[in-house]
Write a structure and sequence with these properties.
The structure is a homodimer of 788-residue chains.
Chain A lengths: L2 E3 L4 E3 L10 E5 L3 E6 L4 E6 L3 E2 L27 E6 L5 E4 L10 E6 L4 E7 L2 E8 L7 E9 L5 E10 L8 E6 L4 E6 L6 H7 L5 E6 L5 E5 H5 L21 E2 L3 E11 L4 E11 L2 H11 L4 H14 L4 E4 L3 H21 L8 H11 L4 H13 L30 H16 L3 H4 L1 E4 L2 E6 H14 L28 E2 H20 L3 H21 L9 E2 L5 E2 L9 E2 H10 L4 H14 L1 E2 L2 E2 L2 E2 L25 E2 H13 L3 H10 L6 H7 L9 E2 L21 H13 L2 E3 L3 E4 L9 E8 L2 E10 L6 E4 L2 E2 L4 E3 L6 E9 L3
Parallel strand pairs in A: 36-40
Antiparallel strand pairs in A: 1-2, 3-4, 4-5, 5-6, 7-8, 7-13, 9-10, 10-11, 11-12, 12-20, 13-19, 14-15, 14-18, 15-16, 16-20, 17-19, 21-35, 22-23, 24-25, 25-26, 27-30, 28-29, 31-32, 33-34, 34-39, 35-36, 37-38, 37-40
Helix pairs in contact in A: 5-6, 5-18, 6-7, 6-8, 6-18, 7-8, 8-10, 8-11, 10-11, 11-12, 11-13, 13-15, 15-16, 15-18
Protein name (chains A, B): Glycosyltransferase 36
Pfam families (chains A, B): GH94_b-supersand, Glyco_hydro_94
Organism (chains A, B): Paracoccus liaowanqingii
Chain lengths: 788, 788
């Protein structure tokens, strides 16, 4: 039975067939590894761009991480064969490649490690994977135990395929001095300047163990032979590994240990696997992690993870929700914010939204992100499509396509930072421009970003979309230079209103006034040009065609255009009611609220690339959780707390077999999408992308803290306004805020008609507590009327 | 026992384990397919760039074809499962993915088709693959026969994996109206201009059969299940395919036919597999190739192949050599020359050398290649690195790196064309320039190419190498602008001498005189600066360091620098003898003559990228057959016919088990390399790259015709000067030349002291026959002294 264990900090899966691609992920400052329950792995590290040290067995395309990653027998993975040397019977842990049905199987991904326990025919294999805090390496611990009554002779064979390293040069051999399989390669290139660029790369992949193997093999093909990976020739007929090397052949790290285990006896191995620049780096890593203090390594990693676990805790009647929000959600936020999704040129939109969540974890990071973004802004005010994190980085892929929404996120991130920290010094921080040596205050930078945004409009005053807004592949609405984004009109208005508040606080009435007028005028334009009768249109194409409207048979209603109409205040109560009804009828699915519906089944040349994606996947009508998070934000904004909670909750895979099987993932992260197109493709609806890179995490965290829990900062203090679901009788939160601790106890009370708030047993007037003192612990009691 | 059959036009391999990657290849004007004996496939077609319609199960890197292509269980292939429905026993033809040991196995690749016959437990599967002449499609014929005594109930299941088509959109379903599995996709892109560029692409892959299947499956994963490809879940326990589709899942064409076969009974299927733009194209192809006249399709393809089989036949004591030269060698030349190696921007060097061989097959192609090359020449005379074959083509990969040798090949190709055709009108053909509207004669173009080449020299007058010459990855000898190429000095001198002859024939004594002087001066410089004592250096680096010299511990002696010293006449007899000795001692291996030795084991920053390749692979000291062909040309040039023949012969895999196992290929083509580094890596020495794209084929063909057979054109007629090996007692050739037919009978006669030549029983004086008459058949008898 799949379940959260260890107070929610670890999950347990007991069936490798239930959701074969179900995975956990670990990372440190330099690398990430996603391991499936069955032993397949996707891992990458920064060198300085994302690279792999274990490869597929063919030349792989260089691209961003792809949704619904597909596994196959020869995919990279970490496998441990066990052969009974009397019977010849073979199984492998975790589950691949032999796929023998285990007597028992347990997969337990935790916050800072992953564990498996696999039992088969009286033998048990325990595996544990950890990462060091600050090196690129996997540390594996494996224990083989005889749980039967008779002595067993077994061969234990860790098999770490390294795959197709390079067409220029790849090979491998066992280095007995190091006690390691060393696989060497030269990263392929052709231009001479790349030689100098590549020279520092870690072109070695190695596997070392804390004891010398009895036999080794380094050629993948020699190991596999005719038997195939499920029954490798090298292990058939009682054979031992033949000591072969790989010479421009596909290498693998394969070690054989011959063990005689009395009843109850066990043997423990520690292995390290990863990339290195040269053999002296291999020796260094072996010294640190195989011969060094294992406990110290583990506690450093735990401390690193603990740093990211945030400043918030919830104790609600929904235990799965508690487990997720208290551990896994901040972990996901921290992953994004501390590693920048392992890229050197994050999309500006992602970079800033990832920083949104970091205000609750490490607000200095948010500050740095805001200032770095502003420093790459053009003097025109234009915010670039991507942010370069290193001097040698370049804008790649989607960052070469012009998008028009980035100013919005700069405002939202800056306001969130101010709300949480009240560090108003950031506004005065002097920041340069991309093409100029002069510096100006961040305040000026943000204001100029909005001024640029306000200028990029058509004759109606609606914002041009160019080749995309938040929606990357909506690239042909405005590529001829005329099409406009309805969503961006709303988001601009929202951002202008937000920034007007900051301007007012800074006593800059002139700018505030201009922004208020612009925001209001934009709302008028939205209502004049984009209201379709029961919902808002998503935009107007280059040829003047409204889309996302009732006249469309596909892409008829878009969620974002409704959510942000609520956020910016464009929708009055009547319109809001119609919109909600339309969303319920057309976008709601058992797996969350779809981004739009129906999914496109044919190219719309005036909408763009998203219409060519598979219907229900990604931006073509998936349950795209980022959009769902905006919707939840809008619902909290209009005080629809119950609906908002349902939207948030639907993003989480339930910790039970049925939902895990359908989603194909564990409840340890929010994926960027679940398949939508519920009416069009019911068989696949709900299936997870298994991509945990998503702006959703930050928004979700922020909504739980600031809306569900209801504790959010203002210039003067803290607002206390929880919006817990009406069926929760009671809920407790604990939150660190501006150096103080808030312990909040929210209760629903029958017969009560108005909300009552006590702080340290003193009732407060309204919902704002002013003058929060650092170091103090506030005990807050909120009593809410029980709903009918 | 592996052997040539059907008079050398087909090969027979009877063991799928002997050389698992051993393959044949078929092509037509638009596509190429390489099929291994075990059923794996690499195929591509032009649309307009090379594309695949069956993919690996992961996003594949876009690159040129790679040597030693690696196969793995989920690699693209064409497989036919057979299940005994009484016992459940399963096997698959050709051999993968089940890998059941067959009772008998026959793989027979022919000139225009490939066949397999696999027997297992009383059942026989006959397979045949053909291509149509001018469409992109595979036509498969499969027959299942009960060769036992009892009636058998079997399921016959063609399984054509389609693989990872696209991250944007991929899926598949069975279309009952078409009787076809239709797999759809959208080629991934991000920039809007690529949408318009991609719109015409064939994004469908389909599998259709001439009868409706009993059951189908389109999801690869549903088919495979937990069983794996060797024992797919969908075929376990008597199950039938479940009719599933693929929805953003990896698709495959899988058809199940349930057959009841009486003893001796058999059922025949015809299938078509390939890409299409839309379903109407699918319908069209089905109509043509499944419902149309199969005989007519076959004879069109055979006629196309026959067109390429050249104008030359040999009957020597070496029957394997005869089989190769009479069928497979011109076939390989024709493949290069008619398809341009399936690229839109061939390297100029390759393009011109491929055209060398085409003079014996279709000289109009050679003419066109020469004129097209000249038309892309710069007015400076510089010949570009690559030739664009279409207006929308671009220079890719290696064509973006500056090389300095291309003029040489323009001269050699033009002279070869003149020698064979005597079509001197080509010299007057008016050709434009890449940056100018004016036209000039080809004669001027070639002269100017040499004039440019003569100007790109250092202060010693040796030619600069920039970032490469013939040797692409020799990219750091001269990247600072100073290094020179010894080989190019020799090749320049050779080309200048060749062109001087043309100039003289055109009565342009002034140019001829200049070229003779330049060629002679270059030889002086070569001998002054590059002779190392026992051989010639390969060049001098940017820093003035000679390399390819006895002082080097790696890359000590390069073959090309010796071969071309002989060709250009730089080496006197003494030097030649020293060079040959050094080559024998240092470069000769049981698998041919290495390009240089010892292979580099570490980067030489003043030589370049080739030193980083795996030692003994490709340009790092392989038996690089193109270089070996130059060596053979040099040996014939200096009348070392026996040595030359040994060099040529070593390029051919022997049609016997031992050599096939070592080389890992069949004797059907010359690969670009066999692994060298015979002393450094004996285990892998001799292993074939299995890449049949190589300039070697043209040179080999030309040497056999013009040197071994010894029949070559001059301005006045034809030279008759065979150089057959001394241990051949007799040899006959038949050759079409300038519209006449030559039947040549060469005999070694004991006691004879001087060569004697009769033409139509009349002795001729010297070795030149003047005034060849079109339409006439010349019977030539050559009597050679038998050697001691």
């Amino acid at each position: 039975m799949p379940e959260f264990i260890d107070n929610g900090t670890r999950f347990r899966l007991t069936d490798p067939m239930l959701a074969p691609s179900a995975a956990g992920y670990l990372w440190n400052r330099r690398m990430m590894i996603q391991m499936t329950c069955r032993g397949f792995a996707v891992s990458q590290y920064m060198d300085p761009e994302p690279r792999k040290y274990a490869h597929v067995p063919t030349m792989a395309g260089q691209s961003f991480m792809q949704p619904e990653h597909r596994y196959f027998a020869h995919h990279p993975g970490r496998f441990f064969y066990v052969r009974d040397n009397q019977s010849g019977a073979l199984f492998s842990a975790p589950h691949e490649p032999v796929r023998a049905r285990p007597d028992s199987f347990v997969f337990e991904p935790g916050l800072s490690d992953m564990r498996w326990t696999v039992e088969k025919d009286g033998l048990r294999v325990d595996l544990c994977l950890e990462l060091p805090e600050d090196d690129v390496a996997e540390i594996w611990t494996a224990t083989v135990t005889n749980i039967g009554d008779d002595t067993r002779d077994v061969s234990f064979v860790p098999y770490f395929p390294v795959g197709y390293m390079s067409w220029m040069n790849m090979g491998g051999h066992f280095d007995a001095d190091l006690g390691a399989v060393i696989c060497t390669s030269v990263t392929p290139y052709q231009a001479v300047e790349d030689y100098f660029r590549n020279r520092h790369l870690k072109d070695i992949t190695f596997l070392a163990a804390d004891r010398l193997p009895d036999h080794v093999e380094v050629s993948q093909q020699a190991f596999e032979g005719e038997g195939g990976l499920a029954d490798p020739s090298a292990l058939q007929g009682g054979r031992n590994l033949a000591g072969g090397d790989a010479a421009y052949e596909i290498p693998a790290g394969i070690l054989q240990y011959d063990l005689s285990l009395p009843a109850g006896g066990s043997e423990r191995f520690r292995l390290i696997f990863g990339p290195a620049h040269d053999t002296s780096e291999v020796a260094l890593l072996i010294g640190k992690y195989l011969r060094g203090d294992a406990e110290a390594v583990q506690s450093a990693t735990r401390a690193y993870m603990a740093e990211g676990l945030g400043s918030f805790e919830i104790e609600s009647p929904d235990t799965a929700f508690n487990a997720f929000v208290n551990h896994w959600l901040p972990r996901q936020v921290f992953y994004h914010g501390d590693t920048n999704r392992l890229t050197t040129d994050p999309q500006t939109r992602n970079y800033l939204q990832d920083a949104l969540g970091m205000v609750f974890i490490r607000p200095d990071t948010t500050r740095e992100v805001i200032l770095r973004t502003a420093s790459q802004q053009s003097v025109s005010g234009k915010v670039p499509d991507g942010i370069l994190l290193r001097p040698d980085a370049t804008l790649k892929y989607i960052n070469q396509i012009p998008h028009t929404d980035h100013a919005v996120w700069l405002v939202i991130a800056t306001c969130a930072y101010l709300d949480e920290t009240n560090d108003r010094s950031i506004l005065a921080a002097q920041v340069g421009w991309s093409e100029s040596d002069r510096t100006d205050s961040l305040y000026d930078h943000v204001t100029r970003a909005l001024s640029f945004l306000a200028g990029e409009v058509d004759e109606r005053g609606l914002p041009l979309i160019a080749q995309g807004d938040w929606n990357d592949p909506m690239n042909m609405v405005g590529y001829k230079g005329k099409g406009v984004s309805g969503w961006l009109a709303e988001a601009s208005s929202y951002a202008m209103s937000l920034w007007a508040e900051v301007c007012e606080a800074e006593a800059d009435q002139k700018t505030a006034g201009w922004l208020r007028r612009e925001a209001g005028a934009m709302i008028e334009r939205i209502n004049a040009h984009l209201w379709d009768g029961d919902w808002y249109a998503r935009g107007i194409t280059d040829d003047g065609q409204h889309f996302g409207v009732s006249a469309d048979d596909e892409g008829r209603i878009y969620l974002n255009a409704q959510s942000w109409a609520m956020l910016c205040g464009a929708a009055d109560e009547d319109r809001q009611a119609r919109m909600l009804l339309a969303i319920d009828e057309q976008l709601d699915t058992p797996y969350g609220v779809a981004m739009f519906a129906p999914a496109y089944t044919r190219m719309r040349e005036d909408v763009g690339r998203l219409t060519q994606k598979w219907p229900g996947s990604a931006e073509n009508g998936a349950v795209y959780n980022h959009a769902a998070a905006f919707y939840a934000a809008a619902l909290y904004h209009v005080e629809e707390g119950d609906r908002a909670y349902r939207v948030l909750r639907a993003m989480l895979t339930e910790p039970e077999a049925g939902d895990i099987a359908i989603r194909g993932q564990l409840p340890l992260y929010i994926p960027n999408y679940y398949r939508g197109a519920w009416h069009q493709h019911p068989r696949t609806a709900g299936r997870s992308s298994n991509l945990f890179n998503t702006g959703t995490a930050s928004w979700f965290y922020r909504l739980v803290i600031e809306q569900l829990c209801g504790l959010r900062g203002t210039r003067d203090g803290v607002v206390i306004a929880p919006q817990i679901p009406s069926d929760w009788d009671r809920c407790r939160f604990r939150r660190t805020f501006r150096g103080a601790i808030f312990e909040i106890d929210v209760e629903r009370v029958r017969g009560l008609t108005d909300r009552e708030i006590d702080v340290d047993q003193e009732p407060i007037d309204g919902d704002v507590l002013r003058h929060v003192e650092r170091g103090r612990t506030y005990k807050v009691r909120v009593r809410l009327p029980a709903r009918a």
